[in-house]
Specification:
heterodimer; A: 251 residues; alpha/beta; five-stranded mixed β-sheet; 7 helices; 15 strands; B: 288 residues; eight-stranded mixed β-sheet; five-stranded parallel β-sheet
């Protein structure tokens, strides 16, 4: 199962409205990071390490576009979990819903991005892992899957390390190691009419907790207007060498 | 510090003194506070259950913003069924309401959010690093996993880079970005940083391109730094990056484009090619 999120794309950012952000009027598409995890899963399928790749997204009906992109890239199936009750779902609920989807799909692995391009909490993979009781491999660049298990190269901040796991797992991936393919035009056309599976929260029997985190206000942080001093190459080299050797005390 | 005799304990869960100290500074004054010091190599499937044994119902857990901390936060939110807030750089307590400042859009906005203290919560914070800070007498509980075994087996450890200076502890950070052109230029900056006792930083693009490991990434998803001097070579200054270095005392940007966003937060801009400046500075330092 490849978790897919529909996020603002093409340089569009969430717009600020009142005490929060809105997605309305901003063009959306598949999170580029999800193309990486999808690519990894497709390659695993191509070498026979997995049988089926299912793209799953929780979101409004407009998230179908991101799923169609996943189908165009090669996902065997796409599932949209859409339910008014899930609007504004917190990370806990989002992770649980995705975990429930994995269970229903009888998935043996859940692959995600390490954080979404928009809200960037970076914790949903951990919620999924905890909900399923599966180990979590975070920030994986690339990994090999075979009958003996998964061997992954991850970097949690102390440098790259090789880790291995047997059995089902949740893996979050980073960019820069697996290059996503481009969809073929024919596949893009075909995906437009692809049949998506749609589930509601009720289908997944997930208890939805009311969002416990409420937004009160949004304020712009005053950025002190700095007027930088501009130096030429010669002056700059002299200045910087002075600062770095501790000889130039200030300014 | 705390004279509260009732109410939940606010736990700072960290893997070293420095980050524990930075997180402790975020806590409201009149709360019970304690530190759960996690053994550094614990996977979340061990750290999570081990930490649960330490917590009482209703306790609040505050962790950092690095990946291991975020994994722990998500794990706890699911396992304890408690709400979570993230990217928090300030928090206040008003009766039984926790109010947090959630950093959004690369630090240009603060979203003030509230959650109930009742039932506990987990908060992933991005505190301003405080080099050399200590945990000053706060009760510390060591969490070593209690003999649990992770499903994840480490086959080859992350080799510590010889002579590297920690980003959060550094007084001077020398950083580079896409503007240096390619990975073949990285040794130049490595040497420059080593020569002047600086930590080596990099932008997300440089890390994602595989020029340097993630450990060096400065930014919202990397390490937040607050050195006395931050030197940015060929870094354009995406909000992602600015979010991680805006607490620097002095910023020197080397960039051919004076309109680059990094120049708006810089004190000094050297308008020149990053590699030429780095090489010339290195020569000058070597010449004494």
């Amino acid at each position: 199962m490849v978790a897919v999120k529909s996020v603002p794309v093409g340089g569009g950012e969430l717009r600020v409205v009142d005490a929060g952000f809105t997605r309305d009027g901003v063009s959306h598409g598949i999170d580029p990071l999800n193309e990486v995890s999808l690519e990894w899963a497709l390659r695993a399928r191509e070498i026979g390490a997995v049988d089926r790749v299912v793209a799953v997204s929780m979101g409004p009906e407009t998230a179908a576009d991101a799923l169609r992109q996943a189908v165009a890239l090669g996902a065997d199936e796409a599932v949209l979990i859409s339910d008014p009750a899930l609007a504004g779902a917190d990370v806990r609920t989002t992770g649980r819903v995705l975990a429930a989807a994995a269970t229903r799909l009888q998935a043996t692995a859940v692959v995600t991005g390490y954080e979404s391009a928009d809200s960037s909490s970076g914790v949903v993979p951990a919620v999924v892992a905890a909900s399923l009781g599966w180990p979590l491999l975070s920030r994986v660049g690339d990994a090999q899957l075979d009958a003996s298990g998964l061997r992954a190269m991850r970097d949690l901040g102390a440098g790259p390390e090789k880790v291995a796991v047997e059995g089902p797992f949740v893996m979050s991936m980073v960019e820069g190691h697996v290059a996503a393919r481009y969809p073929k035009l024919k596949a893009v056309m075909a995906a437009r009419n692809a049949q998506l599976t749609t589930w509601t929260a009720g289908d997944l029997e997930v208890a939805i907790t009311a969002p416990a985190l409420t937004s009160e206000s949004l304020r712009q942080v005053a950025q002190p207007a700095k007027e930088a001093r501009v130096l030429s190459f010669e002056d700059g080299v002299a200045y910087l060498a002075g600062v770095l050797t501790g000889q130039t005390a200030d300014v | 510090m705390s004279d509260a005799t009732t109410g939940p304990t606010w736990w700072v869960a960290a893997r070293n003194q420095e980050s524990a100290a930075a997180l402790l500074r975020l806590l409201p004054d009149a709360v019970h506070r304690a530190v759960a010091m996690l053994r550094d190599d614990l996977e979340v499937d061990v750290a999570g259950p081990a930490l649960l044994e330490v917590l009482a119902p209703g306790d609040v857990v505050v962790v950092g913003g690095d990946q291991a901390a975020r994994d722990l936060a998500g794990w706890l939110a699911a396992a304890r069924d408690i709400p979570m807030a993230w990217a928090v750089d300030a928090l206040r307590l008003d009766a039984d309401i926790i109010e947090v400042d959630h950093v959004v859009m690369g630090g240009t906005y603060r979203l003030v959010q509230r959650l109930s203290l009742n039932g506990g919560a987990v908060i992933s914070a991005k505190p301003t690093p405080v080099p050399g800070a200590a945990t000053d007498g706060v009760r510390i509980v060591e969490v070593d996993g209690g003999g649990r075994r992770s499903a994840i087996v480490r086959e080859e450890g992350a080799p510590a880079e010889a002579g590297g200076v920690s980003l959060t502890a550094a007084k001077v950070v020398v950083s580079f970005g896409r503007g240096i052109g390619g990975p073949d230029r990285v040794p130049l900056y490595r040497e420059l940083a080593a020569r002047c006792g600086a930590a080596l930083g990099a932008s997300r693009v440089a890390v994602d391109s595989g020029w340097i490991p993630f450990a060096h990434q400065v930014g919202q998803t990397g390490t937040a730094v607050a050195p006395e001097v931050y030197v940015a070579f060929g870094i354009s200054g995406a909000v992602q990056h600015l979010a991680g270095m805006r607490h620097s005392q002095r910023v020197i940007a080397i960039n051919t484009d004076p309109e680059a966003p990094i120049c708006r937060v810089a004190d000094t801009v050297i308008r020149a090619d990053a590699n030429e400046v780095a090489a010339a500075v290195l020569d000058r330092i070597a010449a004494g």
